[in-house]
Hints:
With about 475 residues, the chain is an alpha+beta fold.
Amino acid sequence: MSRILYPILLIGASVLLFRDCTHAAGDELTGGFRLPQKNGWTFVHLQGTPHQIGFQNGYLLAPEVADMLSVVKLEAEHDYKKPWSFFREASRIMMWPHIEQEYRDELQGIADGANSHGVKLDVWDVIGLNALTEWSYYNKQYNKEHGLQTATNSVPEHCSAFVAIGSYTRDGKIVIAHNNWSTYLEGERWTIIYDIVPGQGYRMLMDGLPGVIHSADDFVVNTAGMAITETTISHFAGFDTNGIPEFVRARKAAQYSASIDDFAGIMKEGNNGGYANTWLVADTRKNEIGRLELGLKNVNLARSSDGYFVGSNFPINEKLIAEETDFNSGDLAQSSVARHARWEQLMSQSKGKIDVSTAQHFLADHYDVIEKKEDADERALDGHIDLSPRGSSGWVGPYALAGAVQNKAADTSMIANMSFTAAAGHACGHSFKAAEHIAAHPEFSWEKPLQRDMDAYPWTSFSISH
């Protein structure tokens, strides 16, 4: 007998649910749902076994997963000069052996769910999508080992962030905020809010891309009172093909950490160097914040109950800088250095006043410390690389159609209630218009088939679905 899933739109609750009509997929979808888009964001609730969580992700977001995979393929083939089959093979041969069963099941579930909804892909495509932030590290290492030329010497910079506590915040408790810097191809799509209830570990609320098991740009809170974010270590090189993929460790840390030490331990175990980050972590139950600078060879953890940590792709530890980067902290004009200086200014100016509203203003900041004036460019916290007269020359990475693409902020009270506030697009309210920019910069016409406008939306609060 034929078995069919009938979608039901409950207008009053504004929830897209799925009736289990004895379809084989019915059990897999039990409890999962997505909400209508809200101010640019799509909220999805996933729960159950690892395979169920993955299946719901792939099924509920099937069109978005297919679209996002097209973006990752296009960027990988253009930027790394290799066919998608190269990354599929690396997913199978290099990454799969180092992925534990729980996340193998979830990744396979994403592929199964997408296929059940008419999108043809397999688990190697899903891993390739999840590893999008790691491919630049792997590609550079592969080219070095095989005597091939690398298009760029450095991985792209990603993100601006801070976490503050004690005398720096209005109530003495924690405030944490982050904006994601990526290509606008990715950023316009980095608009999923995941509410994940696993069978083991802690419930998570995070932003992310469609079809991923981790946040990827990394802003997540869990029911143990933890909040986690990061910014990329600039000018970094190094990758261990025998390590655990970063996306697996990041997801595991979000799911199983109840302390800063838990988080650091999970991220360090099997560290492959992929997506080397300065992680900013908050433990609201202990009222403590931490900074884990996670290189491949050098790992440094700092913590505080009265102070702040900031991130702008600016490496801190001198040994890490010397051994694992070609970073020049004296180059004041580069984006990471200028943004670090701006963070220091804002922390000093706002001591004792920082709250979520202040954090939202920080993420919309356009002050250029080199020019000493307001200027929406690559040196502003709300990065506008597309508007800079220097294009991408002041920013690490091959892209000019890039910058800050979305924003999140939370405080201790919000984290305790499993909520945060988020703004899709530039926090300043500027909307990116793809056709206008590509017409002015035809060198980026290769992006035209998939490049969309990136509209700016107001700050919006999200919380778990009870």
